[in-house]
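Lab notebook page, bench 4
Experiment: in silico fold of construct C2
Operator: M.H.
Input chain length: 181 residues
Purpose: comparison with the prior construct
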Amino acid sequence: MTFLPTDYKVPQGSNNYFKFQAGENIFRILSNPIIGWEWWTDSTDNEGKQTRKPNRVHDYEGVPVSAVDADGRGVKHFWAMIVWNYQDKKVQILEITQKGIQRAIQGLERSKGWGDPKNYDISVTKTGEKLETEYSVMPIPPKHLANEIKAAFNKTTINLEALFDGKDPFKEDVDPEEVKV
C-alpha cells in the first residue's frame, strides 16, 4: 500500500475554465461553440488596482481600431464551448484561440469519418513553452457519453453568451432546455 493512490494528481484548482497543460489534455465537447473576436485591456479601479479583462464581440467589425497594434496583432479569433475535462473530472469552458487547433477540429467536423466533435473525445497534446509552444490534435474513437458526464453537464448552468457582455457565464441565467445533453 502506498501513501497516495498511484494515479493521484494534485488538483489544478477549482477553475471553471479548461487550460491546456503540458502533455496530453483529453476533453469531450458538450456544446456548440460561440465564435467571435477577443482582445484584452488593462484598467485601474478606484483603489488603484490594475486589472486585465477580456473584451469579446461577435463580428470583427465590432473591434475598435485601438485594440489592434501597429503590427496588426492584439485581436484573436476565438471559439468558446462547454467541455468535460477528463483530468479534473468536471464541466468547464474551453476557449480556443490557437488557429492550428481550430483548423484540426474543423477538419474532423467536416470529415465523413469523424463528423460532429460532440460525439467523441479529443486529445490535444501541448509541447514547448511561450513562442515555441506546439499543439497536436487527435480524435479518440467514439464512445457513448458516460452517465456521470451527462449528469454533471445537466446540473451545470452555463451561459456562454455572457462572455460577450463581460459577465460570469456560470452566474448568468440560461434556459436549461438549451444546454441539456
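Observations: Helices lie at 99-110, 147-154. Strands lie at 17-18, 23-29, 34-44, 50-57, 76-85, 90-96, 121-127, 134-140.
Next step: discuss at group meeting.
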